[in-house]
Amino acid sequence: MSTVADKLAKKSTSKTSSKQVRLRLVYVDFWSAVKLSFLAAVALAIVTVVSFFLVFMVVQTTGLIDRVDEFFTSFSDGGVSIRAFVDLPQVMAFAAIVAILNLIVVTVLGAVIAGIYNLAVKVTGGLLVGFTSN
Asked: Can you tell me whether residue 45 is helix, strand or coil?
């Protein structure tokens, strides 16, 4: 009497013929690269905004902002307060500006890299990639 487990064990020990294919990547579609880099940039922008928020909350909770504010007010005789410049709305506005700039830069960088790769393929012949099937 053979069980299902025995049949599966026989299947896993038998050698399956796998075919290996070697392909050459000779073109990267410009718009696909732009879309993919834009999605990566959106993810990076979200991570940027969340990390700015978390770092600000940790710094505020530890009281570091108050200590730095006391340090600067001791030098400026109370004329300059860091607290006026470093508050949650200002930090989040700065995070949004950084995230938008990163979004633009990463998207453009993805497009430039795709263009450079397509130009380099003409000289090098492309990237050789091997695939196998199960």
From this structure: helix
Q: Which two tokens stand for residue 103?
A: 């979004």
Q: What is the pLDDT of residues 59-110, one digit of tens each?
A: 999 989 888 888 888 877 777 778 878 889 999 999 999 999 999 999 999 9
Query: N- to C-terminal Cα distance for the chain?
Result: 30
CB-based contacts of 55, cutoff 8 Å, min separation 6: none
Residue type, 130: G
CB count within 10 Å of CB 64 equals 12
97-119 pLDDT tens trace: 999 999 999 999 999 999 999 99
The closest of 94, 117, 99, 101 to 32, measured between CA atoms, is 117
d(CA 72, CA 80): 7
Per the CB < 8 A criterion, the answer to whether 18 and 133 are in contact is yes
